[in-house]
Amino acid sequence: MGAIGRFTISLRLLLALTQMAAVGLGGAVHAVTQLSRTDTTYTRVLEQEAAGMVLVTRAGLHAHNDSRLLQSLFVERDMPARQRILGERDRAQRRFRDAIARAQDVLPKETAALDDIERHFETMFDSGQRIEAALLAGEDERALRMLQEERLPAFESFRRVAQTEVARLHRRMDEISEEATRKAERAWQVTLLTAVLAVLLALFLAAWLLRRTVIAPLDAVAARMRALEAGDDRAPVPGQERADEIGRMARALESFRLAAIERRRLGHEARTDALTGLLNRRALLETLETLAGGATPLLAIAIDLDHFKQANDTHGHATGDALLRAVAQRIRAALRAGDIAGRLGGDEFVVILAGTDEAAEAVAHRLRDTLNGPVEIEGRLLRLGATLGIAALPRDAGTPAGLLEAADQALIRAKRIGRGGVGRAAARAG
């Protein structure tokens, strides 16, 4: 697209300069007319291909969102929250189908490939419906088995089909661009043969105009493209306000930039707890896997709120959610630089830190003290308190998952003694 846009605008500027120089050669006019027709035809095709590719990419993002929401049903036990997740899944599925339908309108020649993508999604959808029904019926093990044996393979198959179609659209756009460039070059040669005098007379002015109106804007767009390739998607693409080929190219590139931002946002949401913004269990385990094996021992502090269920039952789930958000803020405030906090679910939190047992003890007592303070929710002062358990890797566990389990066992032992304490993991056998 960039080569076509640069070439076409150059010829249009050259035609204007030829007219200013009073060299009204019929051959040049005919050549430029043919070039304009070629450009219009291929630009329209390229715009359709680019729009279709964006729609297929968006459909893939909605399918990923549906899978993420389905997995969150395994963790979420609160029925109103589950109903909210089910509603979000319905919206993601509708948006997927809408994106595919719009892509079929834009790319009528791609109906078979798009139908194939939709069939794979419907296979995922049917599997998701069965998993959803099993979860709502309390059959968690059967739902997990269906997730592993049906849903995940179906999602992987869908992902491969969608990626294949996007790659094919990319190749098609390259082929169209190359064909348009060849035709534009032939028209350019005809124009050169019939308008050499006009080019010579207007060379200086053409160079100035090209630099100002074409090359500099294209360079700016190319710079943003290189930045996007390097992972920098912060700044919008310049030149979108233009009505010419450069503007269309800039707007198409902006669509890809926004899609990249959306993909990054979805990836962030998959690693964080939606209510508190802390890391979720998956992200905590990934972090522990990354940090394990270092020279400094890793420690986990499991945190359980002592009176959360009573407050939640007495004042309602909205108050309970507000309490959990307030607790998350207090945990963040009590940590040192480099410490990591996450929520495992319900009123269970965990802190990961590197250092000595003494450092972990100090952090645990600071957490306990800050969580013992009253929390004001809608004008009411509520007291929760917390019991904590500490475990170390590799002393108390051999794996990241084992570390979290050891910290939880230490917390349970502390509760047996009395709420509000800080327990330590028992010595590991062997």
UniProtKB/TrEMBL annotation:
EC number: 2.7.7.65
PROSITE patterns: GGDEF, HAMP
SMART domains noted in UniProt: GGDEF (SM00267), HAMP (SM00304)
Keywords assigned: Coiled coil, Membrane, Signal, Transmembrane, Transmembrane helix
Coiled coil spans: 159-186
GGDEF domain ranges (all copies): 296-427
InterPro entries in the record: Diguanylate_Cyclase, GGDEF_dom, HAMP_dom, Nucleotide_cyclase, Rev_trsase/Diguanyl_cyclase
Enzyme class, UniProt record, top EC level: transferase
Signal peptide location: 1-21
Catalytically driven reaction(s): 2 GTP = 3',3'-c-di-GMP + 2 diphosphate
HAMP domain residues: 212-265
Membrane-crossing residue ranges in chain numbering: 187-210
Superkingdom as given in the UniProt entry: Bacteria
Pfam family for this entry, one: GGDEF
Annotated PANTHER family: DIGUANYLATE CYCLASE DGCM-RELATED, REGULATORY COMPONENTS OF SENSORY TRANSDUCTION SYSTEM
Protein's recorded name: diguanylate cyclase
Origin species: Sabulicella glaciei
